[in-house]
Write a structure and sequence with these properties.
509 residues; six-stranded parallel β-sheet; four-stranded antiparallel β-sheet; 48% helix; binds 5'-O-[(L-methionyl)-sulphamoyl]adenosine
């Protein structure tokens, strides 16, 4: 079985920020988690290059369209490359390959009679690229996400009716409790489905928006950006309305879309209905996360100066501690706060936990045994209990964890907890005192072995978050094996050579 994991494709009208970095990191962490337990993953991310916002941005830039799109898309790709994201495919909606699939899908639903043309008057929010109902607006009549009043627009457009599928979608959600995770977002979608669904406007007149995929059945229109963008999830893995979809189907059966709550409706209402019209099942899972807000719970904005720049924080603390922090600090059910100070605190937690433990134990045995892992140790019940407890926890998460945000969050918490427990064990057993007394040699060696073996388990478990650091810890323990999801206690080869290297989490200053 091979899994398919996707991120949203990002608008290129602005520079990538920490929120975009986060979802793409989360996908990479899930890919590594799955790979470690033996499941292959096809992972995609990319850029959404059509629509009014990108069009306005291109016009302001004064650049040729092709150059503008490439430059802005590369801003995202370069960030993801710098973050060592192991994506298998980078989607760009401006490519001919993607556009051909959008055209194919449009023709398919048009020929099935599922599209109708009508005149429509509505309130249009350019930020969302969506028509709004008065009930979607705040008390000042503004779009709550963009703090701007939508414009009243009257246009002829093509529509795709949704209402006739509403009950099917409600039933689908109720019979697939695992479809949308965490469950609070499934509830939110059921709330959206209490009211009849308006027809989805799937076109924009070229007189207003020209940056898009031309409608195959009317050259005066381009396709609505969301209809175009959502199709990326199937265009990236080769869907065709009339081709051999065997490879597509195999991947699609195990597909997971990652997204934040801002785009829940498009993914959990429009998308499954679009797929149904195309004769495709909904993706296996939608994994939804909250929003990163600035410190104090305020939305990040340039004018407030509280925007966290992914390049800046990556340079400050390194990509791997940043990955760990983001996955650990995102709350499962709410928004989370982020700032450079909070990130520094998170870095210190890691340094004091895993970093400190590794340095202390390695420096100690470098002195006492020339760095050799003690052999023929006889572990006390306390030592065995510590190692078995840690191994069992990681074993359970890797065996039964469901490749969701909950799993990633639990894993990061358990890593910190294990590190805390081993630090406490080390301090309580005072190996530096035992080392001075030859009659306590056996006990000294047991404590050292236990600490080293625990560190091995922690390093292996941390691989999806911190692959390079995990490898460095294992190498420093004289363990060359690739981390695997088999968490067995007392597996550290006896007699191996340990090495005190540079600190894993150098002082930030
Ligand atoms: N182009 C659409 C998505 C189309 S997918 C078929 C879009 N683009 S976006 O650039 O606005 O990206 C939104 C996504 O970026 C969120 O769903 C989330 O994955 C990520 N984030 C952007 N800002 C974020 C935060 N402040 N916090 C958390 N994630 C956020 O919508």
């Amino acid at each position: 079985m091979k899994k398919y994991i996707t991120t949203p494709i990002y608008y290129i009208n602005g520079a990538p920020h920490i929120g975009h970095a986060y979802t793409t990191i989360l996908g990479d962490v899930l890919k590594k988690f799955e790979t470690m337990r033996g499941t292959e993953v096809f992972y995609t991310t990319g850029t959404d290059e059509h629509g009014q916002k990108n069009q306005s941005s291109q016009q302001e830039s004064g650049l040729e369209l092709k150059d503008f799109l490439k430059m802005r898309s590369d801003n995202f790709r370069n960030l993801f490359d710098k973050m060592d994201i192991d994506y298998d495919f980078f989607v760009r909606t401006s490519t001919d390959e993607h556009k051909a699939v959008v055209t194919d899908a449009l023709n398919y639903i048009f020929n099935k009679g599922l599209v109708k043309k009508k005149s429509y008057e509505g309130l249009y929010c350019e930020g969302c690229e969506q028509f709004k109902k008065p009930s979607d607006l705040d008390e000042h009549g503004n779009c709550p996400d963009h703090q701007k009043a939508p414009k009243l627009i009257t246009e002829e457009n093509y529509f795709f009716p949704l209402e006739e599928h509403r009950q099917w979608l409600i039933d689908y959600i109720n019979t697939h409790p695992d479809w949308i995770k965490p469950a609070r977002y499934a509830k939110e979608v059921l709330g959206m489905l209490k009211e009849p669904l308006d027809d989805l406007c799937i076109s924009r007149p070229k007189s207003r928006v020209w940056l898009g995929v031309e409608l195959p059945f009317d050259k005066d229109f381009v396709t609505y950006i969301w209809f175009d963008a959502l199709i990326n999830y199937i265009s990236s893995i080769g869907w065709k309305s009339d081709g051999d979809n065997t490879a597509f189907n195999a991947l699609w059966e195990h597909s997971t879309h990652l997204l934040a709550k801002d785009i829940l409706k498009t993914h959990a209402v429009y998308w499954p209905i679009m797929l149904k019209a195309l004769g495709i099942n909904p993706p296996e899972h939608l994994i939804v996360h909250g929003y990163w807000l600035g410190e104090g719970g305020i939305k990040m904005s340039k004018s407030l100066g509280n925007v966290v720049d992914p390049y800046e924080v990556m340079d400050l603390m390194g990509i791997e501690p940043l990955r760990f922090y983001l996955c650990n600090a995102m709350s499962l059910t709410n928004d989370s706060q982020i700032s450079v100070d909070l990130l520094k605190q998170g870095y210190k937690v890691l340094a004091n936990n895993i970093g400190n433990l590794q340095m202390r134990v390695l420096k100690m045995i470098a002195k006492s045994t020339g760095g050799k892992v003690p052999a023929n140790v006889s572990l006390a019940a306390e030592d065995k209990a510590l190692l078995e407890g840690i191994a069992n926890t990681f074993d359970r998460i890797y065996k039964y964890g469901d490749s969701s945000l909950e799993t990633v969050s639990e894993l990061s918490n358990e890593i910190l907890k294990a590190g805390g427990d081993v630090n406490a064990y080390f301090a309580a057993n005072e190996p530096w005192v035992l080392a001075k007394d030859e009659s306590k040699r056996q006990r000294y060696e047991a404590v050292i072995y236990t600490t080293l073996d625990a560190l091995r388990l922690i390093a292996a478990a941390a691989y999806p978050f911190m692959p390079v650091i995990s490898g460095k810890i294992l190498a420093s323990l004289g363990c060359s094996a690739k981390p695997s999801a088999a968490f067995k206690p007392c597996d550290l080869p006896e007699g191996g050579q340990t090495v005190v290297g540079a600190p894993l989490f150098p002082f930030l200053g």
